[in-house]
Specification:
The complex is a heterodimer. Chain A is α+β, with helices and mostly antiparallel strands. The longest helix of chain A is centred in the middle third of the chain and has 26 residues. By secondary structure, chain B is α+β, with helices and mostly antiparallel strands. Classes of the chains: A alpha+beta, B alpha+beta.
């Protein structure tokens, strides 16, 4: 590859000269390589100067290919060879007869064709014939046998595309040698290539004296032709042989001038699609006997860079980073090298006029990372003085960077030379709703040596659509992606493109739903994220997304996840597990727990992968397994932020909470465990990493991170533009692709990888239930220090999710995230309605085993003998039909096995329980239905006074708004308790009302009863948060746990709560009633219900419709969503 | 073509083995190894190949083969490297004494049943051999060429290691004894005082420890290491993640006080190290190497680092220090940072031998020698050197490989052989969901499973074919190709019965013959008729309880019953005698309650001889 450097230095001038000459664009390139039937291979620069020449071991070099590693594969009479730029032969195969075509295949094997024998062979790197076909029977027996076949290509579908010379046709054969397509070529076909659009480009020899290039469609229509008739006044085309498609769309073609024309014409042409020759060359010293040609990819367009740098400097640009961004469009690679290598202080000094500081040190810095340098470069490096000629130093620096780039790219290129990506600005934040700007095209980066060209695999024809989330199948034959022709966020379907043919197939078809983030499963199905669940997020009107799966044809679609808020970006680990982000805040604050979860391909074993009880990382996004490990690479990010942040390795083996299993990369560092909402948004930014190994990644990356632009309308806009990079764990990087207008994002290498073994599905759709088995509830920190025998029953509670957002309340608490709750069902209590499904007995040894309905998100509460909650789960789990899920204990370390010292569990010996009903069938816990009758029976006789009147409490409000500031949360709770004193008996001698009379809170769109507000004692929180039809309230009702009713805050922190943290066990009301309040005695069932209400976080509504104060439009909106959910659920098929 | 050339390049020269159609017998199946001549020779016992191969590490090839009269089961060499001591025989065993220079047999010494793991005393005069199915350790006096004593150990001794001073022999009992329907079931390590030839302690391993295969004392004589499985039989087999069914472990015993120090899991969090087998320790006691017969890999464990980690864990526990030891076997991350997993290129690793910077491993199923070269503690090269010609696998052999292979299992936790060692039983009760939860059943031997449908204790599966496929699906959580299931069928059908150690010269003893008459006369044969010793029926014999109360159980075959303890569907009977005296099984008790002690003894002798 050293010749590339010499070529580079000349290219700029020559390119401009040619441009002027032709008046049309020629390919910016590193020149070309061509093969001669005389037995030689030449490399010419763009000016036609010979820069490298190689005599092949035998004559009649009939085919040639420049490989990604810079070597050249060719066929001559003595075999097929691979030769290095240093002319060392590193591969040879000779099958007995002279080969006429050769091709290195994607799997590393080599295709070889013999004309006379008709053998088409695929040969392993060791020289073994892997497969073989013979098409001699299809060769018309005319002329010498060695003239039967010329160029043959193995297509991506495995078929052979054969140019029959004497047979005067081009045929496509199956791998077995059966013809499937044929096109007659009366002039004699020399070469044929299948184009990305499915057409076939054919070079025609001289049998009909009309040498030309023709493009033929699959249906055999001639769609393009270039012959002497297209060239006014001359007839240089005699016998067309090889050709190559250039990145600019032009065709580079060569010809053989035998049969009487040797030396008469040029033999190399660059031809535009509108039929102009923009370049015409001949090989010095060659009479024109060329058979094959390859254009070399454009190298870094970074020369002349110094002039631009100096111009910027002269213009007085004070900001080095700004200068580099300005230079990026013209010098993408070089500006990135400078961005990563130059110390900003040195750069500033250079800009300030200090000549000595920048380029010479850069040379040494780059040299230290570039491996062994050629002697010439070392010598130049050694000659650099402290005050060098900075032009020379910059040139040297760039040359070293070229070498360094080759060294760094080598491990990537050994795996693949192609990367699929999207041009896609992912601005989706914690809501995970489909929020994107851009997403204009599905692209393919094709590396040719150290640099690549980008082509579009798919773009919306109308230009308004959105394309996102590419994923490559295990065998690399298909690309899955999501596409929205309308560009609407609720209108994405899954599509699949066949790599070989570019044929596109739509997989899901449902309108008005977004099916995104599809990934291929080992069993041949697809897992994807979808808005089909027809839910909205608890805190704002975001559409939520849950995981689904379907077969490759879109059939057997069914829901896997039943999750409260959204999940995001399911990807498949080496062992077939699905790794994804799950956002949850059941009974806790919404900001911090956005952990990684895992499930099997059939939806079973939905469990934590990392960080469900962690403050840090605030969020983990875009996680993918790292090949050969049980670790994942992910983006550590914030909550109220875009899905961008820092590159991290997640290793659950090192621990599953906080920073224990997290290492940040680029550079490697252990993060501090901080509690920060918008974590990780400063400085450089990452998205969508793909691990090639534990140390090497392809990633979307923005070195400068978020920048604020001034839009034409003078409004500032903060955005982050990503480019694609190859990056190691230290952060050493090479730019792969960029676009000055839009992020290049979501890179996935187009390479096959082992398909994980299929895990036998435990899902049994004939079942309605699943089974839980718990070895010992006392194991793990959930019941730490709780004496054995204390835990008596497990309450099993299902969570109900909201269809849409109507009304608004506010949740506040000790995580400090004061935030809306939409479609509220409580006052600063439970986010969601709770359905008590029943209870399971905990055996004396702590074990339990019981059935629960499948496809239902459930959580558990451990109750003691007083039926008060010892510990509550504040998360949920969902079983697939027929699944049995086991756990060791309550929140036990997921890195532990079942405990062997426990002995055989009593639950195992006793069999599986059915849940014991909670005073009747499973139902949503409604204050009005469960508690009010008790109050009516025992309380309202005295508690028939005034309704609790919420008032503003400016001190408390200020404390909450300042939190976490001067006060601790317990201090704020005390402030609340002090304020919420028991209301006085009214003039009629009646205590505060515990009646069921309903009064509407307009903003919440709910009617709360006297009793409910009387027990919670809310105050008016002043900020006006949101409008509702009919006007906006200036206040929101907010209640904090108080001494009488002390529930687990809906804003409780993610860390595991200690047993008996709050709830009925800490509520004065329970003690009061136990002791007998004014001779009032409640029976156990009544006490149970009151405890249950407090332990479920004081819900008022048992479902979303209860006690609503919605407008007709709001009700219709809800009903429409209900109907949509029902319709979509009914579409799920077995 | 290329393969042949490679073989020639490797210098393979055994032209005598040219079988075109390979059977298991044609395979070599390297099993045990011993170094001689200060590491210049590696002697390899080829189990099915019935020969002893001399491998020259210098030229990396087998330079000599000595045919053996029977399948070798264990091998050691004399200190001077001149003599090989090989134990052979599937039933009554023989110690073959071979002169390695001439290849001549110097002597044949009768030892016990199913002999394995010969260990030579430091003085070179005494040899210990594990008589697996006699449940004894034989003491052979090499001067008189006689087994002069047989020390009773617990159950199926399969490996032994001698302290450097020769005073203590630590013996790995493959399986636990006792009933299975209890809370604590674990195999034990027997410690024999060689001077008195008495067991001084049977060290109980952690609950669930079964399937011991390797045992090795460190060069300094301070610690003994043993490899085994750790069955999580306490919980139902509802999932396999997180070691839910079976884990794989290394136990460390302190020699000074014969105490189990701790047991550490060889598995990773999401990837098992299935069926640990051989182990070797470097002379400086710094590196310990374990083979995984199921995953075809080695674990290289940094012993000082492991010790430091354990010590740190103990320190961290403070006053609860013992708990650290107890919990290490529940911690799937204990070896993080102190262990390196090395994937082998060959299949079915068994014995491991370390010499200098080389680790050799017998690769049973690929007929090859694994060779791992280390440099500065890091793996430099992993090679698999063929010991014989590459033979196409017969369905039976391929089935045997698959049966032992954990690669098909989700996350590689276990293989069929994990619970069915040698296709028999691990002696444990497992609660499989196939018949509902809450009713653990004892593992059945798979001998003749295909001839005795239906399968499982409740006859849940129609036949063994169904069971094989269900096993893949519900225990390995795998979806294998049908061809794999067919191969496992073929292997299981090819199993042959091991002659009972209770037979006398291959025949029933006098007492057993009388017992056979009783067996028939009191009606045992009604349900257990020869030759299968089952009528393939199912009967409610009164043993069911819990979810199984009142249910009928499949009549088990009594063949090879001498090695399938414990007995009855829930393993409640530790011995045949316990079965005969079990009041729960009313059909048996009705028949045997009136028998005299002598008759019972005779009946028991017969049942143990079938």
């Amino acid at each position: 590859m050293s010749m590339m450097i010499g070529c580079l230095l000349r290219r700029g001038i020559v390119g401009i000269a040619m441009l002027a000459l032709a008046g049309r664009a020629i390919a910016a390139s590193d020149g070309l390589v061509c093969a001669s039937y005389d037995g030689a291979i030449y490399r010419l620069d763009d000016a036609g100067q010979m820069v490298w020449e190689y005599k092949t071991p035998g004559p009649q070099c009939a085919d040639m290919q420049v490989l990604g590693n810079g070597n050249i594969l060719f066929a001559c009479t003595t075999g097929v060879y691979e030769v290095t730029p240093k002319k060392e032969i590193v591969f040879r195969f000779f099958g007995g007869q002279k080969p006429f075509a050769c091709q290195r295949l994607a799997d590393g094997n080599t295709f070889v064709c013999e004309s006379a024998s008709g053998r088409l062979m695929v040969v392993s790197p060791q020289g073994d014939i892997v497969r073989e076909a013979n098409i001699l029977g299809h060769c018309p027996k005319e002329g010498a046998p060695e003239l039967y076949l010329r160029r043959v290509r193995v297509l991506e579908n495995g078929n052979y595309l054969v140019a029959h010379y004497t047979g005067k046709k081009v045929c496509e054969y199956t791998p077995a040698g059966d013809p499937v397509w044929e096109y007659p070529v009366p002039g004699g076909a020399f070469a044929a290539e299948r184009l990305p659009n499915g057409n076939t480009l054919i070079s025609v020899a001289d049998k009909d004296q009309n040498a030309r290039l023709i493009e033929v469609s699959r249906s055999k229509n001639l769609v393009w032709e270039f012959s002497n008739a297209d060239i006014q006044g001359s007839a240089p085309l005699c016998f067309m042989t090889g050709f190559d498609l250039l990145p600019n769309g032009n065709i580079l073609a060569v010809q053989w001038l035998g049969h009487g024309h040797l030396g008469a014409f040029d033999s190399i042409f660059e031809i535009t699609r509108d039929k102009h020759i923009v370049r015409s060359l001949r090989v010095p010293g060659n009479q024109g006997t060329l058979t094959a040609v390859r254009g070399l990819a454009p190298a870094a367009t970074h020369h002349p860079l110094m002039a631009d740098l100096k111009a910027a400097k002269a213009a007085g640009s004070p900001n080095w980073r700004y200068i580099l961004l300005q230079l990026e469009a013209k010098h993408p690679y070089a500006s990135d090298w400078l961005a990563q290598d130059a110390d900003p202080k040195d750069a500033a000094a250079w800009l300030a006029g200090n000549m000595d500081v920048l380029f010479a040190p850069l040379c040494h810095k780059a040299a230290a990372q570039a491996g062994t340098l050629p002697a010439a470069l070392t010598s130049r490096l050694d000659r650099l003085t402290a005050t060098p000629d900075e032009d020379a130093a910059l040139v040297l620096y760039l040359e070293i960077c070229e070498l360094r780039r080759q060294l760094r790219l080598k491990p990537l290129l050994e795996k693949t030379g192609a990367i699929v990506f999207t041009k896609f600005n992912d601005t989706a934040s914690q809501g995970y709703s489909v929020v994107a700007e851009g997403g204009k095209s599905l692209c393919l980066l094709t590396m040719n040596g150290a640099y690549g060209t980008v082509s579009e695999l798919f773009a919306d024809p109308a230009g308004k659509g959105q394309i996102r989330d590419p994923e490559v199948d295990f065998d690399a034959k298909h690309i899955l992606y999501s596409y929205s022709p309308s560009g609407r966020r609720d209108d994405f379907s899954l599509y699949e493109q066949e790599v070989a043919t570019r044929a596109v197939r739509r997989i899901t078809t449902e309108p008005d739903v977004a099916d995104i983030q599809g990934a291929y499963l080992p069993d041949g199905g697809i897992v994807f994220n979808s808005s089909r669940c027809a839910q909205e997020c608890d805190c704002i009107s975001y559409t939520t997304f849950n995981l689904y799966r379907c077969e490759r044809d879109g059939s057997k679609l069914r829901r896997l996840g039943y999750d409260q808020v959204s999940v995001c970006y399911p990807r498949i680990m080496d062992d077939g597990r699905v790794l994804y982000t799950r956002w949850e805040y059941n009974d806790r604050g919404q900001i911090f727990p956005q952990p990684l979860f895992q499930m099997n391909a059939d939806g079973t074993s939905q469990t934590e992968f990392y960080g469900n009880n962690s403050w840090f990382p605030t969020s983990l996004h875009h996680a993918r397994g790292i090949p050969g490990t049980q670790k994942a690479v992910a983006i550590a990010s914030g909550h109220h932020t875009p899905q961008s942040g820092k590159l991290a390795i997640v290793d659950p083996a090192m621990g599953r909470q906080e920073t224990s299993g997290i290492e940040l990369l680029a550079p490697p560092r252990k993060p501090a465990a901080v509690r920060e909402d918008a974590w990780g948004q400063g400085g450089d930014q990452f998205q969508y990493p793909y691990a090639l190994s534990e140390t090497l990644f392809i990633t979307a990356y923005s070195p400068e991170g978020f920048v604020t632009h001034e839009l034409p309308d003078k409004k500032p806009s903060r955005s982050c533009r990503y480019r694609l990079y190859l990056m190691d764990r230290d952060g050493r990087r090479e730019l792969l692709a960029s676009d000055p207008l839009i992020s290049c994002n979501q890179p996935v290498p187009l390479m096959s990888r082992p398909r994980p073994a299929v895990r036998a599905s435990q899902d049994d759709q004939t079942q309605a239930d699943g089974t839980f088995f718990i070895q010992d509830v006392y194991a793990g920190p959930g019941l730490k220090d709780v004496p054995r025998g204390t835990a008596k029953t497990l309450r099993v509670v299902a969570i109900e999710y909201r269809r849409t957002s109507i009304g608004c309340s506010l949740n506040t608490g000790d995580t400090g995230g004061n935030w809306h709750v939409r479609t509220p069902i409580s006052i600063t209590g439970s986010w969601d309605p709770k359905r008590v499904l029943g209870e399971a007995a905990i055996q004396a040894d702590g074990s339990a085993s019981f059935k629960v309905p499948a496809n239902t998100p459930v959580f558990f509460q451990v109750l003691d003998s007083k039926r008060q909650c010892i510990q509550t789960m504040r998360s949920w789990t969902t079983l697939m039909p027929g699944e049995t899920a086991s756990c060791v204990g309550c929140h036990e370390d997921k890195n532990s096995t079942p405990i062997v010292n426990h002995g055989v569990t009593m639950a195992m010996r006793g069999g599986v329980q059915k849940l014991a009903p909670f005073d009747g069938p499973a139902r949503g816990f409604s204050f009005a239905r469960e508690i009010q009758p008790i109050l009516d029976r025992h309380c309202i006789q005295c508690h028939d006074g005034d309704r609790w009147q919420a008032t503003e409490n400016k001190t408390l409000t200020a404390s909450i708004l300042a939190y976490p500031g001067k006060q601790t949360w317990p201090e704020i709770l005390k402030q609340n308790a002090d304020a919420a004193v028991t209301p006085k008996v009214n003039a009629a001698g009646k205590a505060f009302s515990l009646r069921g009379d309903l009064v509407t809170e307009h903003l919440a769109a709910r009617k709360w009863s006297d009793a409910y507000v009387g027990l919670l004692r809310p105050f008016l929180f002043p900020p006006k948060v949101i409008r509702r039809p009919g006007g906006d309230d200036h206040n929101i009702l907010v209640a904090l746990p108080n001494t009488w009713v002390n529930w687990v805050s809906p804003q409780s922190g993610p860390s595991l709560l200690e047993p008996y943290h709050a709830g009925s066990c800490k509520s004065g009301l329970i003690t009061l009633l136990e002791n007998g309040h004014k001779k009032t005695r409640l029976n156990q069932q009544e006490m149970d219900k009151i405890s249950c209400w407090i332990d479920l976080q004081v819900p008022f509504c048992g479902d979303y419709l209860e006690a609503n104060a919605w407008t007709d439009d709001e009700t219709k909106k809800w009903q429409a969503q209900e109907e949509k959910a029902r319709r979509l659920a009914a579409m799920e098929t077995q | 073509m290329k393969r042949t050339m490679k073989r020639i390049a490797c210098g393979f020269f055994l032209a005598a083995v040219t079988a075109a159609t390979a059977t298991a017998a044609d395979c070599l199946s390297p099993l045990d190894m011993a170094l001689a001549d200060h590491g210049k020779s590696l002697w390899i016992a080829e189990h099915t190949g019935k020969r002893l191969d001399q491998f020259d590490p210098e030229v990396r090839k087998v330079v000599r083969s000595i045919p053996l009269p029977d399948r070798p089961r264990g091998l050691t060499c004399s200190a001077d490297g001149k003599t090989a001591l090989v134990v052979t025989g599937e039933g009554e065993g023989t110690l073959e004494v071979l002169d390695l220079e001439s290849g001549k047999m110097l002597g044949k010494i009768p030892v016990g049943h199913g002999p394995t793991a010969p260990v030579l005393a430091p003085d070179g005069k005494t040899l210990y051999v594990c008589n697996r199915f006699d449940n004894t350790v034989g003491v052979v006096d090499l001067a008189s060429n006689k087994q002069v004593a047989a020390v009773a150990v617990v159950r199926e001794p399969v490996a032994a290691t001698l302290t450097p001073d020769g005073s203590r022999l630590f013996v790995a009992n493959h399986l636990p004894d006792g009933p299975a329907n209890v809370d604590y079931v674990a195999a034990r390590v027997s410690v024999i005082d060689t001077a008195s030839r008495k067991v001084v302690k049977n060290i109980q391993l952690v609950n669930g420890s079964v399937g011991l295969r390797g045992i090795q004392v460190s060069a300094d004589g301070k610690y003994v290491f043993a490899t085994h499985l750790m069955a999580r039989f306490q919980v139902p087999t509802t999932q396999i993640e997180r070691g839910w069914i079976s884990t794989n472990a290394l136990s460390i015993i302190r020699v000074s006080d014969l105490t189990l120090l701790y047991t550490v899991l060889l598995d990773d969090l999401d990837r098992g190290f299935a069926n640990p087998w051989g182990l070797a320790i470097s002379p400086d006691s710094k590196l310990l190497c374990v083979s995984s017969a199921g995953n075809h890999e080695l674990s290289l464990i940094d012993l000082p680092a492991l010790t430091a980690k354990v010590d740190a864990a103990v320190q961290a526990m403070g006053k609860d220090a013992d708990a650290a030891h107890l919990n290490a076997h529940n911690d799937l991350t204990m070896l993080i940072g102190v262990r390196q997993r090395v994937a082998l290129h060959g299949l079915g690793p068994r014995t491991v031998v370390m010499h200098g910077n080389r680790i050799y491993v017998a690769e049973y199923f690929s007929d090859s020698l694994g060779q791992v070269t280390l440099q500065d503690g890091k793996v430099q090269a992993v090679e698999s050197i063929p010991l014989g010609p590459e033979l196409p696998l017969t369905p039976e052999r391929r089935g045997e490989l698959l049966f032992n292979d954990a690669r098909g299992c989700f996350q590689n936790w276990l293989s069929c052989a994990s619970c069915h060692p040698d296709a028999r039983t691990d002696g444990l009760n497992w609660d499989l969901p196939n018949d509902g939860l809450g009713n653990p059943k004892n593992v059945k031997s798979l001998l003749m499973a295909h001839q005795t449908p239906p399968t499982t204790w409740l006859g849940i599966r129609a036949d063994a074919e169904v069971s094989v496929r269900s096993g893949f699906r519900h225990i390995l959580f795998a979806v294998p190709p049908e061809a794999d299931a067919l191969a496992v069928d073929a292997y299981l059908k090819s199993l042959t019965q091991t002659p009972s150690p209770w037979l006398v010269e291959g025949k029933l003893s006098m007492a057993a013959s009388r017992g056979e008459k009783t067996f028939k006369s009191i009606g045992c044969a009604d349900c257990h008729p020869a030759p299968l010793y089952t009528d393939l029926g199912q009967y409610n014999v009164g043993t069911g309880s819990g979810p199984d109360a009142g249910k009928s159980f499949d009549v088990p075959s009594l063949r090879e019953g001498w090695r399938t303890a414990p007995y009855l569907h829930d393993g409640r009977a530790a011995t045949i005698r316990d079965v005969l005296r079990n009041k729960g099984h009313r059909w048996i008790f009705n028949k045997t309650s009136a028998l005299s002690e002598k008759q019972l003894q005779e009946l028991e002798a017969f049942l143990l001889s079938i």
